[in-house]
């Protein structure tokens, strides 16, 4: 039997866990072999141990060391809830929207060989593991907050590389979207094909550039909107009608004065 008189619960092996060797309180970890219907290469069933009731202070490095007594640990995954796949990993850590795991969690310990799983499932009920040792301490409290505070300060070179990679990925994505949009046919089934040619940079005078900008602005502002085109046509039609009425009056006056002889 284990420390609290229970060796297994609903198929889970119950093992004691101390934070430090001198700790009086004993926490209980529950684990069993990972089993899931959906296969995932990151968590092979025959080499993965599923652990629940994992305290918040447990780290990936501490778990690797803790379970290395049963076999070589390839990787450790933490989740808020059980999951068949690996956790989300931020490609750009300093611009990540993935929230950190708070509170108790579950863990998936992946070994290099299936024999390690057999060893973990055959541990004696009185087994008590120690998480933090003098050689490998686990930081908590003020020490942990101090470490997290120092990690907030990022080197400019590292941050610049991440920003550059993020901008390049964004530009590449936009270019792919534009290329895909050009290949989509319109309502009549036509596909727009365009070729982009890079222009060589030319040196021009400041005055010439200002003139070009002014001309471009004027050209863009004239009849830029649809309603402006419509209004221009209506104004032109009104002028033609006005001129037509004036011509009719002029012809009437000429007839009245007998100066108009069409034949």
Description:
The chain has 263 residues and is α+β, with helices and mostly antiparallel strands. The protein is 38% helix and 15% strand. It contains 6 helices and 7 strands. Strands 1, 2, 3, 4, 5, 6 and 7 form a 7-stranded mixed beta sheet that branches. A hairpin with an 8-residue loop joins strand 2 and strand 3. The longest helix has 31 residues, at 226-256. The radius of gyration is 39 Å and the shape is elongated. The termini are far apart.
Taken from the alpha-carbon principal axes, the silhouette is: elongated
Order of helices and strands: EEEEHEEHEHHHH
Separation of the first and last Cα atoms: 131 Å
Regions with pLDDT < 50 over 5+ consecutive residues? none
Main sheet: strands, sense, barrel: 7 strands, mixed
Explain briefly what this protein structure is.
By secondary structure, the chain is α+β, with helices and mostly antiparallel strands.
Tags for this model:
7-stranded mixed beta sheet, single chain, 263 residues, alpha+beta, elongated
Task: Please render the helix and strand layout as text.
Blueprint lengths: L7 E2 L2 E7 L8 E7 L14 E7 L5 H8 L5 E7 L25 E7 L3 H7 L6 E3 L10 H11 L4 H28 L22 H16 L4 H31 L7
Parallel strand pairs: 2-7
Antiparallel strand pairs: 1-2, 2-3, 3-4, 4-6, 5-6
């Amino acid at each position: 039997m284990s420390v609290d008189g229970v060796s297994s619960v609903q198929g889970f092996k119950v093992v004691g866990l101390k934070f430090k060797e001198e700790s009086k309180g004993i926490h209980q970890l529950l684990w069993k072999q990972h089993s899931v219907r959906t296969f995932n290469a990151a968590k092979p069933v025959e080499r993965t141990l599923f652990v629940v009731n994992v305290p918040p202070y447990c780290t990936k490095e501490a778990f690797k060391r803790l379970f290395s007594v049963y076999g070589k640990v390839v990787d450790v995954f933490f989740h808020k809830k059980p999951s068949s796949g690996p956790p989300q990993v931020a490609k750009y850590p300093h611009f990540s929207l993935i929230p950190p795991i708070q509170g108790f969690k579950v863990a998936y310990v992946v070994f290099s060989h299936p024999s390690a799983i057999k060893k973990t499932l055959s541990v004696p009920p009185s087994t008590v593991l120690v998480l933090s040792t003098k050689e490998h301490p686990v930081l908590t409290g003020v020490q942990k907050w101090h470490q997290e505070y120092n990690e907030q300060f990022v080197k400019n070179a590292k941050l610049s590389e991440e920003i550059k990679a993020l901008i390049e990925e964004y530009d590449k994505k936009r270019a792919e979207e534009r290329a895909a949009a050009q290949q989509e046919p319109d309502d009549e089934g036509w596909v727009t094909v365009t070729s982009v040619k890079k222009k060589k940079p030319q040196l021009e005078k400041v005055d010439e550039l200002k003139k070009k900008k002014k001309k471009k602005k004027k050209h863009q502002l004239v009849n830029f909107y649809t309603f402006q085109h419509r209004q221009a046509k209506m104004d032109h039609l009104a002028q033609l009608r006005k001129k037509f009425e004036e011509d009719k009056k002029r012809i009437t006056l000429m007839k009245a004065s007998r100066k108009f002889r069409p034949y």
